[in-house]
Amino acid sequence: MMVRKTLISLLFIVILFVFIKPINSTMISVFNIADTPAVVTKGHYGTSLIVEISFSDETLLDWLKTVKEPYPLLLLDAAWIKRSPEHLKVIQERKLPTGLLGPEDLVDKPIDLAVVQKDINIYEKYFQETPLWFATRNHQYSQDLQNNLFQQQMNILSPSLIWKGEKTPKLQKGDFVFMSLHQNSNISFKDLNTFLQQNKFMSIEENIFGYKVQTKKSP
After folding, report:
1. Could you give the CA distance from residue 132 to residue 152 in angstroms, rounded to a whole number?
2. Which residue has better confidence, 142 or 21?
């Protein structure tokens, strides 16, 4: 009788593990935020910082080594990825969240999807996964580009507002705050760290879904 009760208890635990654990799991695989191609410009639960990176120096390397959680999402330029092995090592060791920063998509000169795919391939080569997040330099997106990225289960981001180093702007719930670290950027890391300290940011996933998740690309 005792053995039977033990077996029933074990069976009940297994059932709970199988059916409840996936619901509460913090690991999600490849996903599309929307059911159709779309550009996501806002979350629901807080504010998120997205940093575009296409320029390297020692100051950036030091910042990557010391930036604290919750980490901003880093959108990385493909050419920058290729020439920045030391920075990539820090990003990967610290598990800083990343996405891909693509070229501009202009109305009179639509983006070449082959160029975008080349950038995706570079990202995949160095990170061993497809980028979950994507943005173009000018935050413009043709329908062809949206369709292409949707098929690859990459989510397109665009800013609610762009921070250029000025005094803290008025942030609203759900905002995606973009800032750029390009060669011609004038934002100092002192200003950036102050901006991070003065505002309570959360991850893109937490902003969108309302809870913290670890995103992982499936093969």
Report:
1. 9
2. 142
